[in-house]
Design a protein that fits this description.
With 483 residues, the protein is of the alpha/beta class. It has three domains: 251 residues, Rossmann fold, CATH 3.40.50; 101 residues, AHSP (Methane Monooxygenase Hydroxylase, Chain G, domain 1), CATH 1.20.58.420; 90 residues. The chain has 15 helices and twelve strands. Helix 4 links the parallel strand 8 and strand 9.
């Protein structure tokens, strides 16, 4: 059972100075150990030490999360939640200096009913470019001397140089405790991160125990120096263990290879040909885009849709020729799919036609008559309902007259609202709906009416060829005259 005392933070109890000396902050240490809920209780210190930039602080933050959520099956919690605790970051430069304690003390009750105070310690990584060997040895020795469990954080394997560093570092601690006849340190746990040999030893404590026995085994075939090293390590700790951890991303990679989403591997020739054809597609599309930009892009004036489309067809054919004339790998059959992708609407995404749609929309935005279509349509609707309402009033049909007045008011409100949307940029969805309604009214009613009126004004029906046989038009003084 764990009782959470308070939200904690890292407190530096040992500082490193510029002259490579160390300063103990006794006040900070006292505030943690002499707190009312901690003093007079046995203390268990869990420390993590090892080379710098190997994830020690990151690992300790998971220890903290476990202690806060102990007793819950899903103690990891939300996998997307930020990892809080000791400072950690990616990169190649060191982040932790000196020795830090987490000031949130966890009270744990053992099976015998004794209450223990559990503390977590983070240490400066060894072998960075700013620390001497003595600095590294001192940090490691002090953390080992004061910890109940010293986690020796290693990457991928237990190598001989790891054991040699451990021998050097622990010897500093032995020098400080020469008057002690028993083993100077308590428990050492080799934590091997990113273990990549599960066929030699399983992940976890059992596999770690097997690897540790092999690494610390003493035989007559070994050199005396190697034998002495292993005897020294065993003599320093009352208990030694090992734990093998898999790479955190290995399971994800395995699942990807098991799934169907992984693309089929390509030959070097196929991959090169694909890149070659994609580059040719990009070049052809750039040529098309440059030509369209000169015609209707930026500050260019408005073009009629018919003229714009004719230029589009011409430039699209030019882009096809550009693609076809470019030397490519893979042959014509392989390149045909990229040519179709460039210009054919039947294969999506067809690059050039999509680009043309964007240019057409941009060009339409320059049409001042198209921009004025909505207000003109709404104003025409207002006038129409005004005159129709007046006509119904003269005829005494006041119900229809009032209904027309209502529609006229709604049209006028829509016109004012559309102007506000255009001016302020607010309620753009409402403005888009008003534009759609105005376009429907224009296309279905006003535009056909406008065309009919204009045709009648240019050439009246009695002057067309559809008139009677005896009627024909002859020019007289530059005008048409019916005979």
């Amino acid at each position: 059972m764990v009782e959470r005392i308070e939200t904690g933070r890292p407190v530096q109890i040992l500082r490193t100075k510029d002259d490579h000396s160390f300063e103990l902050d006794e006040d900070a240490l006292g505030r943690i150990l002499l707190a009312d809920h901690v003093k007079d209780k046995p203390v268990v210190v869990v420390s993590v030490a090892g080379a710098f930039r190997k994830g020690k602080s990151f690992l300790l933050d998971f220890f903290l999360r476990y202690m806060r959520n102990q007793g819950q099956a899903d103690w990891l919690g939300d996998p997307t939640a930020p990892l809080k605790g000791f400072s950690w970051r990616g990169g190649c430069e060191r982040d932790t200096t000196g020795i830090l304690l987490w000031d949130e003390v966890f009270l744990v009750t053992t099976s015998q009913g004794q209450q223990l105070a559990v503390l977590f310690m983070d240490t400066q990584g060894a072998f960075d470019c700013e620390s001497t060997v003595k600095d590294c040895a001192t940090i490691f020795a002090l953390s080992t001397m004061t910890s109940s469990v010293q986690v020796y954080n290693l990457s991928q394997n237990i190598q001989e140089d790891d054991l040699q560093h451990l021998q050097l570092f622990t010897e500093y601690g032995r020098l400080a405790q020469q008057d002690m006849s028993e083993k100077p340190f308590q428990k050492l746990l080799f934590l091997v991160r990113d273990w990549s040999y599960p066929y030699d030893a399983d992940y976890g404590a059992n596999g770690g125990r097997a690897i540790l026995e092999k690494r610390l085994q003493i035989s007559d075939r070994q050199h005396q120096e190697l034998q002495q090293l292993r005897k020294h390590i065993r003599s320093c700790f009352s208990e030694i263990g090992c734990f093998l951890m898999p790479h955190p991303g290995l399971k994800v990679y395995v699942n990807i290879f098991k799934g169907d989403e992984l693309p089929e591997p390509k030959s070097m020739l196929e991959a090169t040909a694909e890149a070659n054809n994609l580059a040719a597609v990009a070049t052809a599309k750039d040529k098309y885009t440059s030509g369209m930009e000169q015609l209707c892009g930026g500050d260019q004036p408005y073009l009629s849709p018919q003229v714009l489309e004719s230029h589009h067809l011409r430039l699209r054919e030019s882009a096809r020729e550009q693609f076809s004339s470019t030397r490519k790998m893979g042959g014509e059959e392989f390149s045909q799919q990229y040519l179709d992708r460039l210009t054919e609407a039947r294969l999506l995404p067809f690059e050039i036609d999509q680009t043309f749609e964007n240019f057409a929309k941009h060009n339409e935005g320059k049409n001042i008559f198209a921009a004025a279509r909505t207000p003109a349509t709404l104003f025409a609707v207002v006038l129409a309902f005004y005159f129709v309402s007046g006509a119904f009033s003269l005829l005494g049909i006041y119900s229809l007259s009032n209904f027309c007045n209502l529609l006229m008011g709604l049209s006028l409100i829509s016109l004012c609202l559309w102007g506000y949307v255009r001016y302020s940029g607010d309620m753009r969805e409402v403005g888009a709906q008003i534009d759609n309604i105005a376009n429907i009214i224009w296309a279905s009613l006003l535009k056909p009416l406008y065309k009919t009126v204009m045709q009648d004004r240019v050439l009246p029906p009695h002057l067309t060829g559809g008139a009677g046989e005896g009627t024909r038009a002859t020019p007289l003084n530059g005008r048409l005259k019916a005979n």
